[in-house]
Automatic annotation (TrEMBL):
Protein name: FAD/NAD(P)-binding protein
Ranges of residues in domain FAD-dependent urate hydroxylase HpyO/Asp monooxygenase CreE-like FAD/NAD(P)-binding: 2-160
InterPro entries: FAD/NAD-bd_sf, HpyO/CreE_NAD-binding, L-asp_N-monooxygenase_NS-form
Record-linked PANTHER family: BLR0577 PROTEIN
Length: 580
């Protein structure tokens, strides 16, 4: 049984179809697929949503199919990218409904590729809980069904889920009810009721990532506004969005040019051997102390490989000499000195700390001054991310993908890395940031700055930031523009809540612990359950996405393959149907 029919569940079916000829002979295998949403698209990519909501990747950078860069035991089964399937320009940012149609087609193709006698049964309802002995058939209770479904094994592929409010959000919600305010907690923007956000009224928005971009689109064009070139023409139905966050800036624009020439030879300083060493440490490892220095050196290697080999006129040494010195230096200060001596222009140097905190130490005398300053920052980001002469940025992007593929093996490393990755590598399309600039000039969006704090007092919500000291913005509406955290203890999904109550192993951040080899769920003693598996963001082996850019290794594809092979091997042994 597979609980979750979105892209992760579809990817698992595709891998079952690919591996079955080798690992499972004969017929008589039933796959029960449980999800109230459409198979393939699932909830996030369902067709019933606004066409204003885009993907944040070019259509040519989206695939559900494996290639020979995926490190897996199963066979490669290639297929079209989104742009090849849809027959659209590869540089298009498709809307999510089109991606949902692509995912539905992939699901149908995966089901059709299953061996004869392997049948998929879709149950359009929610799974409530799973029970049964570890050495016997599992019982899965579904809503509106009196008797449980029986399954030899269960795979949870649930994707992103809703969560109960944490202590801070509960307090803000209670304050809003008491004072007649509007409070929208972390949620999927497409599912939020935005109607209480009144035209012309100020709205505090905490969060400057992709959830904000969706909010921005739905409250502007979604309310009848339009763009005339670089100018926004309001409809008069828009609220005024006062947006801030920890960094105070939007996620970096998607890179707007193609890769040319040699790719950096990755992994170089953070690969399987380094991960093996971290996992073998008797006392465990600390991310900041033990892992981050390796990541930082790896990303720097990708950056400087590209700079020295493609833009040598901006360096003072040949690559082979610099590479040897770079490999020998481990301390950050020594590496910074080496780079400064060989790369004259600071704009050509990789400074991850500055990237992560672009407004660190920056102060403005008023919010009016901040608006102009932040528009200049966004314009600079757009210019750089669309300039091929800055192609070391794209090399760093490839380095981030490589690093993520290695970090998956380390389990739960805390939330910071995932946010940092999204900020650098999974930002909005360039056109969205140009729309943001137009909205800022029109006064529909107002920037609050970095280190944003929110308080509830005086019958209103109040926001302040470190970027404009001693200034406060008041509003009667607050939107938390971010996804709910994927914690078991607060998950609204009843099945995950039941697992939490049953005592499965969890990380300090509340993620479900799984065996990194094949996704089997672990108990608190670290023992893998022989009949229960889990894949996705609610686990400590979460990958950057259920689909990925072609030829980048696809950690989720690797995980899907390992889980499919483990499941088929188990079923073959159970029924004596191992392939010849």
């Amino acid at each position: 049984m597979i609980v979750g029919a979105g892209p992760r569940g579809t990817g698992l079916i595709e891998r079952i179809a690919a591996n079955a000829p080798e690992l499972y002979a004969g017929s008589g295998l039933d796959i029960h697929l449980v999800d109230p949403h459409p198979p393939g698209a699932g909830r996030i990519w369902r067709p019933a949503q606004s066409p204003l909501l885009w993907m944040n990747s070019h259509a040519e950078d989206v695939t559900m199919f494996t290639d020979d860069t995926v490190d897996m035991a199963g066979p490669v089964r290639e297929g079209p990218t989104l742009h090849e399937w849809a027959g659209i320009d590869g540089r298009t940012f498709a809307d999510r409904r089109l991606q949902g149609a692509y995912l539905s087609w992939v699901h149908e193709r995966a089901v059709a590729a299953l061996p004869p006698g392997v049948v998929v049964h879709h149950h359009p309802r929610r799974a409530l809980r799973v029970g049964g002995p570890s050495k016997g058939r599992q019982q899965v209770w579904l809503e509106d069904r009196a008797r449980p479904l029986l399954a030899d094994l269960v795979v949870l592929a649930l994707g992103h889920l809703d969560a109960e409010l944490d202590d801070e959000q509960r307090a803000l919600a209670a304050y809003a009810r008491e004072h007649g305010l509007v409070h929208l907690p972390p949620d999927f923007t497409a599912d939020s009721d935005l109607s209480p956000l009144a035209p012309g009224e100020p709205v505090l928005v905490r969060g400057f990532g992709l959830a904000f971009v969706d909010l921005m689109a739905l409250l502007t064009e979604g309310r009848g506004g339009r763009y005339a070139g670089d100018t926004y023409v309001p409809s008069g139905q828009e609220p005024v969005l006062y947006v801030g966050s920890r960094r105070g800036v939007p996620y970096h624009s998607k890179i707007g040019y193609d890769w040319t020439g040699e790719r950096p030879p990755l992994p170089r300083f953070f690969g399987p051997a380094e991960v093996d060493g971290l996992l073998a440490r008797p006392g465990g490892f600390d991310f900041r102390r033990d892992v981050w220095p390796l990541v930082e050196k790896e990303l720097g290697f990708a950056h400087y490989h590209r700079l020295f080999t493609v833009h040598p006129e901006r360096t003072t040494e040949v690559w082979s000499v610099f590479e040897e010195k770079y490999a020998a230096v481990d301390d950050p200060a020594g590496r910074a000195a080496l780079v400064a001596s060989a790369v004259p222009d600071p704009a050509d140097r990789l400074d991850l700390a500055a990237l992560d905190h672009p407004l660190e130490g920056v102060r403005y005398g008023s919010y009016e001054e901040l608006q102009e300053g932040l528009r200049g920052y966004v314009e600079g980001d757009l210019s750089r991310r669309h300039d091929p002469s800055r192609s070391p940025d794209l090399a760093v992007f490839l380095g981030l993908l490589s690093v993520y593929g290695q970090l998956v093996r380390l389990g739960d490393i805390g939330p910071w890395w995932h946010g940092f990755f999204s900020y650098l590598a999974s930002g909005p399309p360039g056109p969205r940031l140009r729309q943001l600039l137009a909205l800022s000039r029109a006064g529909v969006v107002r920037f609050l700055g970095a280190g944003m704090t929110v308080s509830a007092e005086g019958g209103v919500f109040r926001a302040s930031s470190a970027t404009v000291p001693d200034s406060v913005v008041e509003a009667r509406a607050l939107v938390e523009a971010r996804l709910p955290g994927p914690t078991l203890a607060r998950a609204r999904d009843p099945l995950l809540r039941e697992l939490h109550a049953d005592g499965v192993a969890e990380t300090p951040d509340g993620l479900l612990r799984v065996d990194p080899a094949d996704g089997r769920i672990l108990d608190r003693a670290g023992r893998p359950h022989p009949r229960r598996f889990a894949l996705g963001p609610h686990t400590d082996a979460r990958a950057p996405g259920a689909f990925t850019r072609p030829r980048t290794g696809g950690p989720a594809f690797r995980q899907n393959d390992a889980t499919a092979r483990a499941a088929l091997t188990f079923l073959s042994a159970l029924y004596g149907r191992a392939a010849a």
